[in-house]
Amino acid sequence: MGSLISVLAAENTGKAVAASGWFLENAWFIWLFPAISFLLILLFGKRFPKGGSEIGIAGVGASFVFGLATAVQWISEVEGANSKGAEGEYALGDGVLQIAAEGETTSGVGALTRSITWLTNGAEAIGAGIMIDGLAVMMIFVVTLVSLLVHVYSTDYVAGDRRYTHFFAFLSLFTASMLFFVTASTTLQMLVGWELVGVCSFALIGHWWEEKPNSDAALKAFFTNRVGDMGLIIGVSILFFGAGTFDVIGVNEAALNGTMSHTVTLAAALCLTAAVMSKSGQFFLHTWLPDAMAGPTPVSALIHAATMVVAGIFMVARLYGVFFEGYSIGGSSINLLALIGGITTLVGASLAFVQNDIKRVLAYSTVSQLGYMILALGVGAWTAALFHLFTHAFFKACLFLGSGSVSHAVHSFDMKKDMGGLRQHMPHTYRTFLMGTLALAGLPIFSGFWSKDEILVGTGGWGLFGGTDGNGAYTLMLAMGMVTAALTGAYMTRVVYLTFFGEYRGHGTPHESGPRITGPLWILGSLAVVAGFINFPPGFQLVPHSWQEKFFQWVEPVGVSYFPPIKHATPSWSLAIVSVIVALIGIGAACYYYFIRVRATSPSATELTDGPTARWTLARAGHSVLVHKYYLDWFYTKVIVGFVKGPLARGANWANQHVIDRVVNEVGTRSVQVGNALYRNVDQLVVDGTVNATGKIVSSSGEELRRMQTGKVQQYAAIMFIAAAILAGIFIIVI
User: Fold this and answer.
1) Among 85, 151, 232, 723, which is most exposed with the fewest C-beta within 10 angstroms?
2) What is the pTM of this model?
3) Residue 532 contacts by C-beta under 8 Å, 6 or more apart in sequence?
4) Helix, strand, or coil here: 494?
5) Which residues contact 1 (CB under 8 A, 6 or more apart)?
6) What is the pLDDT of residues 44-96, one digit of tens each?
């Protein structure tokens, strides 16, 4: 990694100690392994027996093992810091850091950063390196584990593909780019990783580019993200000039300690929010994300569970000091970030209802859950947002890979036309898909219940039977989250019925997938059940105190200067019970509609012919709005793009022909006229006249002088005498 110029820990405002350890200090290996595998697959992949897939699995597997060791070392540092109470020194490389005074206990572990000089601009040295803390360690674990399972799954799913080697090469680069992004120590590195992730997603979404819908989806994802990425570039620039550094810790500190004015911080937060809206599929820049389902299913799983779409969530969490201060999250009841998240979670959940493509349902579900995470960050529930990212990665990857297993059997993603009754033919896929569904619906004891409940608690908007407290009273966000809980249970019940119940409506005989597909499904399904146990709420009587809030202890920065002093809401049994009841209402309503009424019509039926949309005008109008996806694609395509390609293009052409060209032609015509006038009046009359007159004078003078050359000495002497007299007179007058 070059010559080391700094190995240091974050400055701390409280009693945080510095992290140390070989794996932590060399965490850059984690993204280097898949980056090297990308190059090896491109150069030599086709010469290997498995087409290069074994190289990709080896590279990501090495990253997972290294990341696991890094996580173990980080956790041991945190646990050791929490139990350390005597005054002393904590070793870090060649230096030491003073920690808590005698009798006190340390409250956290500061980030470990390691950097080199990357660029030099005059006196300004721009560094590059790694920043490893609980947030980075958590993301490393999620990205490497899900990517490893996707790699294994893909060896079966894309077997025989015409670009099999190319697929695994970009899968490795995709993983390396995301790992580079989450371990970056500067905003400039984050920008590089952000763009690399976007380029890889473009290549993978358009993997089957020969089919126009696939290439269109890739271009739509690319261009939509470019819109938001302008916000990231501008936001990073604002932060540099406001804080005087690209360093992540320095930027957060400048926002929190007032070095940057609130106006500058707010401007940066607004620009960065635009980037989050595009990359993480927030309303109204979410439209690319469902279309990205045109890519292979393993890519969809990786994008939606662990890489691209969670990049925006990570960026807000990493630069949380900027957002917390810019939007004045503490003590408020609404802000732009929370509002965008709340609207997005409702929009995504409602659009999932009318999709017949199983992957599109899951895509809109991802939009909704990403809205949950942004909502949580907007209300100050930082740990809840990241905990939901953690649990969501497992159950959403399970669901996407499960949908791929189903499509692998029936050769279609259409639930209404080609699925139904598959639980009998595909028991492993059905059971793991059901695990993911129950986790997504937020039912106890599944992982989604714990993380969703933390988000609702974190809004601070619940005052029944003991308030939840928090960083403000975000009651509107709580209501949005509650409605989304009901919608989520309902649309996932619809998916389960149309896919696994009733009669099979497809062609041929479906069959269960092989072990390279079902193996990852069982691992992810199991994690969808137990992952929530890592963060039992405080005061949860069923487990010992030492098992409670482990995720919070391991991931949230505590006692450091680069993280805001956020408040943590207290758990509420009443809120948990009500949220479960709300989810059950949604599930119950969908069960009544599909399992009782639709099934009573016919085992092969998928909808009621005399349902609400057939009987009620308002329901039909609402359904039409949802089918047309709130007309956002129409607005972008017909209004914006149509205006640019139509009236604006014609107007620009008219302006070019009648304004610009006319001005240019007029200038040219006038220039010719002026040139002719100058030629006639100046060049011919003045310049040429002067030259000709001078020539004539010289010629005449020469003739006169020749006549004076008579050969008479007396005449020459007279001329010299006259000339000498004239010169003498001049000298006398002048001097």
Assistant:
1) 723
2) 0.86
3) 391, 439, 445, 446, 447, 448, 449, 450, 451
4) helix
5) 28, 114, 116, 129
6) 999 999 999 999 999 999 999 999 999 999 999 998 877 664 333 333 333 33
